[in-house]
Amino acid sequence: MELDTTISAVVTGGASGLGAATARALAAAGVKVAIFDLQAEKGQQVATEIGGTFCAVDVTSDESVDAGFTNARAANGQESILVCCAGTGNAMKTASRSKEDGTIKHFPAEAFNWLIQINLVGTFRCVAKSAAGMLTLDPREDGERGAIVMTASVAAEDGQIGQAAYSASKGGVVGMTLPIARDLMNEGIRVNTILPGIFDTPLLAAAPQPVKDALAASVPFPKRLGRPEEYARLALAMIENPYMNGEDVRLDGAIRMAPR
Question: Do strands 189-196 and 95-97 pair parallel, antiparallel, or not at all (unpaired)?
Fold first, then answer.
């Protein structure tokens, strides 16, 4: 898909990190961008910076997502690009024993479901509603109507200790990539997924510098944390390359995560 001022996009989780970098990259290519996020101040700031539109959206709510698409389309027209970066994480062993007093506890199902609802169901909700809108567009060259990029994680394949819920949520995103691409193949909508490794995003902001340095040193090459701009470059490559469809691509400096 050739990027220009006739194209509009929606980026979920676009107020910070990978999403903000992608929103900036799309805007720099001339695309009209709408940002979906719950961080109103940061989201509006990025939207103002790039000349885009901010929509306060909770991806776990049908009503909120519907309102977001209505507002985005009123401002920019029907999107032909969707990039899903909204997500979060938590960590806890499935079951564990306290070293202090031997107390046994387990990962609450409510916490597991909470993560699944945001990372997996929230992604699917946005994809399904955006794809339905893309079906109304006239086809472009090669019959293309749209391009969707979802975000998983290397944890989908290399889940660490305490990441059962997170890995399940991201593994679900990987698992639905090809079926969704097949669902939409006759409508000219492509679907691909990025599996980022250890990136320098707000999720790592609170980590002490020695922890960040150790994480960076664990990457085979280059020995540093990933940059959000590098995620954005791959997202744009997936959008612009008309033959890329149904793919899951690791972006991780060749890291393979250890158990802990």
Answer: unpaired
187: Cβ contacts below 8 Å, ≥ 6 apart: 131, 134, 135, 145
Residues with a known catalytic role? 166
DSSP-derived pairing of the beta strands 8-12 and 32-37: parallel
Residue 256 resides in a domain: no
Number of structural domains the chain divides into: 1
* Span 78-95, average pLDDT: 95
**Can you read off the two tokens belonging to residue 154?**
């290397």
- Tokens 């394949």 sit at which residue? 157
Under DSSP, the state recorded for 121 is I
**Domain of 103?**
8-251
CA distance 80 to 102: 55
User: Is the pLDDT at 142 greater than 80, yes or no?
Assistant: yes
Identify the sign of the CA torsion 44, 47, 48, 53. Answer: negative
- H-run or E-run covering 18: helix 17-28
Between CA 221 and CA 48 the distance in angstroms is 36
At residue 170, φ and ψ (nearest 5 deg) are: -80, -35
Structure tokens at 164: 């059962």
Q: Per-residue confidence at 206, pLDDT binned at 50, 70, 90? A: low
Question: How much is the pTM?
Answer: 0.95
Q: Are 192 and 150 in contact (CB under 8 A)?
A: yes
